[in-house]
């Protein structure tokens, strides 16, 4: 098993972790491990692609209504002759 050290952890965040760990009846290390496990297992099931990821990231800034230009009718496809 690997181990890691987290430096410069905000005191308030550490206190919240301590309280949450106590509420769940486990150590801060076990609580942090569970938080990481849950967060990372949830993220792997996301789908939707790049457009959805961008939309989710910029949604908090609001939207912009754009006028959509009218489309022209489709052209007739060219006649392809059989040359010998």
Notes on the structure:
With 84 residues, this protein is mainly α. The chain has a domain at 11-59. The protein is 46% helix and 0% strand. The chain has 3 helices and no strands. The protein has helices at 11-23, 28-43, 49-58. α1 (11-23) packs across α2. The protein starts with 10 loop residues before the first helix and ends in a 26-residue tail after the last helix. The mean pLDDT is 87.
Describe the structure concisely for a colleague:
The chain has 84 residues and is mostly helical. It is 46% helix and 0% strand.
Return Rg in Å.
27 Å
Write the element-wise H/E pattern from the N-terminal end onward.
Answer: HHH
Distance between the ends: 72 Å
Strand content: under 5%
Give the helix tally. 3
Overall structural class, as computed from helix and strand content, comes to mainly alpha
Shape: elongated
Descriptive keywords:
single chain; 84 residues; mainly alpha
């Amino acid at each position: 098993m690997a181990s890691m050290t987290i430096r410069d952890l905000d005191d308030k965040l550490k206190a919240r972790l301590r309280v949450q760990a106590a509420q769940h009846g486990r150590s801060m290390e076990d609580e942090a491990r569970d938080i990481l496990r849950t967060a990372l297992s949830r993220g792997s099931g996301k789908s939707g692609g790049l457009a959805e990821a961008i939309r989710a990231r910029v949604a908090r800034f609001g939207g912009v209504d754009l006028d959509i230009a009218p489309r022209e009718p489709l052209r007739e496809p060219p006649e392809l002759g059989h040359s010998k």
